[in-house]
Amino acid sequence: MNEISSYQVFAERMMQKDSELIPKILRCMINDDQAKLLVSLPGTSDEMAARLDRPVDQIESGLKDMFIKGLVFKKEKGGKTHWRPPAHLAQFHDGTILWPGAPPEFYDLWRDYMDKEWPRLAHVLVNFMPRPFTRVIPVGKSVETGKVQVLAPENIREIIKSSTRIAVTKCTCRLTMRKCDAPVEVCLQINRGADYTLERGTGREVTKEEALDIIAKTEEAGLVHVTMNKAGVGHFICNCCGCCCQSFTLLISDRLSLCDPSRYRPKIDPQACLSCGICEERCWFGAIKADEKSIAVVIEEKCLGCGQCAIGCPEKAITMIEIREPGFIPE
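Predicted structure:
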């Protein structure tokens, strides 16, 4: 394998064989020796030194540098550190964009990738995934707990209160796409996600009270809570907009199933609706429109059940109703 080909080998492993931009992103981050090391993983530093016929200290230095940059991941096993490359494009994207000290051209390359090459891959990926990797959590204040069943994995404040460690990072999508003025330092890393973030130096630790304040700020800004699509506490809580998010943009434009909805859907009281249009403005997904009488109605197939319409309604004409069974959330 020659030095130049290592970059394209990596791109191919990210399911981007013909990508022009993935190799450029990688070249912006590491040198040729590191690229060879990256595509030779997984393994321990000793194993990689033997495999590549290099000194162990050189291998360890390269691995540590790539760990900080989000290019490799580690796990302690049997008293040794085992290293591996990103498992997929999303992990490569989310890990590297938070690289401390990244130059401006690095973010520009990622923005170009998301605009030009990511949509083609996304259309392929939806056919491989039995369910999306992420799901929406409704805004807590939008769901009346006395009327519907709210599970712990869909209560954003309970997720925070039950966590053992929390860190906040910048939103990887808004950091690169820069298409709105929504707050950027609002993505929460939970438990193991927080440990990873703090070890790399890509975020700062926050208390549960600070995390709850961040959540309140994101809800006021109209952002949508997103987490791992499984029961229990996951590793992150993202707070997404519809113009920068790598999943939402294609969900909106192409109806790609890249994020599951919540178990809830808004119900509008036509008698209480004053046709102010605020709910329509707050919905990223075009799921609320005015009918012929200028009364707001829900377009069910477009709704992700985020609850932003409900908390924004000045007349409280919108309530969130339970439309999916608890088993909708994967174990």
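Summary: The longest helix spans residues 56-68.
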